[in-house]
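Transposon Ty3-I Gag-Pol polyprotein
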Amino acid sequence: KEEADHLVKEMVDNGITEESSGPWASPIVPVKKKDGSIRFCVDYRKLNEITKKDSYPLPRIDDTLDALNGSQ
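Predicted structure tokens:
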């Protein structure tokens, strides 16, 4: 916990992240890397459950380029 708190403070001090007062939050899961340092992983499962799918998804760029192939 101390190491995670230190990493959060360091990221705030360096402008990497900032405090949020929004209505949504996702838990941080600290995971120890092979070298012993900590990596933060964010568990977005609850947020993903309530996220609405885009009704009009953007076309893929390769499909658009294929459709334009041969156009003048």
